[in-house]
Design brief:
140 residues; alpha+beta; two-stranded antiparallel sheet; two-stranded antiparallel ribbon; 3 helices; 4 strands; 9% strand
Length: 140
């Protein structure tokens, strides 16, 4: 054990650098809680967008909120769905006669993006953290 990390026997130094091990250290007495936290973080990250102009991250609070978003830092206006920088007059959105294919209020792809992120992380954790089952994440 020359890696200078916290004690990680019986794992090798390489094994101790894995994501699963990092969460076990963070929640030493409750690896299931650590895994649930990891899934929640991935689901949140799937709904976050980045401003095209300044790089600040932002998120809508609900699926039915307006998809025309204005950055609070730099004032850039962009579409939440496709991330294109758009004019302030709603002309990007198809219901307003615009050329875009995006809806002003609905975002059906958001639910799918979040579900995909959850499924990916759950699959990884179930394979790498002993004792976890897919059903452990049903309420996340």
């Amino acid at each position: 054990m020359n890696c200078k990390r916290q004690k990680h026997v019986p794992l090798s130094c390489t094994g101790a650098s894995s994501v699963a091990y990092a969460y076990q250290v963070e929640y030493q007495n409750d690896p299931k809680a650590a895994a649930i936290n990891r899934v929640a973080e991935a689901m949140h990250k799937a709904s976050v967008r980045t401003c095209n102009k300044c790089g600040k991250e932002f998120e809508k609070q609900g699926r039915t909120e307006c998809n025309q978003v204005k950055c609070l830092i730099c004032g850039n206006i962009q579409c939440y769905i496709c991330s294109a920088t758009i004019p302030a007059d709603h002309s990007h959105f198809r219901r307003f006669g615009g050329t875009g294919t995006c809806d002003l209020y609905d975002d059906p792809g958001l639910v799918a993006q979040i579900a995909k992120a959850k499924g990916s992380v759950v699959g990884n954790l179930v394979q790498t953290v002993p004792g976890l089952r897919v059903s452990d994440f049903d309420k996340v």
